């Protein structure tokens, strides 16, 4: 059974940075398509970024392009989301998702951007 554990969330001022980590256990990360999602209070869950399993192609939501960077370290079985120039509207619970035949989800990590 694949297990995903997010970390790195917290409180940061507008313009600040955070790096989220998603540690994957139970299988080889190489086989999985990984995505970061978020859910803000009162809003639907939205996709933030994703990275493919093989060639590592990436995609970003328009709202985070140029500010967020997704990466994966298959040797460490970990996926990262570097978030720069954070805005109050980035406040949300961030979830890591892995997909191979089915979806797997982590428990989420809270990111709060506030002065």
Write the layout of secondary structure elements.
Elements: E1 3-7, E2 10-12, E3 18-25, E4 33-39, E5 46-51, E6 58-60, E7 68-73, E8 78-83, E9 92-100, E10 102-105, E11 109-113
Parallel strand pairs: 2-11
Antiparallel strand pairs: 1-3, 3-8, 4-5, 4-9, 5-6, 7-8, 9-10, 9-11
Feature tags:
115 residues; mainly beta; seven-stranded mixed sheet; four-stranded antiparallel sheet; globular
Describe the structure.
Helices cover 0% and strands 54% of the residues. It is an all-beta fold and 115 residues long. Strands 2, 4, 5, 6, 9, 10 and 11 form a seven-stranded mixed sheet that branches. It has a four-stranded antiparallel sheet with strand order 1-3-8-7, with no helix packed on it. A hairpin with a 6-residue loop joins strand 5 and strand 6 (58-60). It is globular. The model has no long low-confidence stretch (mean pLDDT 95).
Label the structural class.
mainly beta
* General form: globular
| N-to-C span | 40 Å
Order of SSEs: EEEEEEEEEEE
Radius of gyration: 13 Å
Look at the structure and give the mean pLDDT: 95
The helical percent reads under 10%
Runs with pLDDT <50, length 5+? none
The largest sheet, given as strand count, sense and whether it forms a barrel, is: 7 strands, mixed
In short:
With 115 residues, the chain is mainly β. It has strands at residues 3-7, 10-12, 18-25, 33-39, 46-51, 58-60, 68-73, 78-83, 92-100, 102-105, 109-113.
């Amino acid at each position: 059974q694949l297990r995903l554990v997010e970390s790195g969330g917290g409180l940061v001022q507008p313009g600040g940075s955070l790096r989220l980590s998603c540690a994957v256990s139970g299988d080889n990360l190489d086989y999985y398509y990984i995505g970061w999602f978020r859910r803000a209070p009162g809003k639907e869950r939205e996709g933030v970024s994703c990275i493919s399993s093989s060639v590592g192609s990436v995609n970003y939501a328009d709202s985070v392009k140029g500010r967020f960077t997704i990466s994966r370290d298959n040797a460490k079985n970990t996926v990262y989301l570097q978030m720069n120039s954070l805005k109050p509207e980035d406040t949300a619970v961030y979830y890591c998702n892995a997909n191979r035949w089915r979806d797997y989800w982590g428990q989420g990590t809270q990111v709060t951007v506030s002065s």
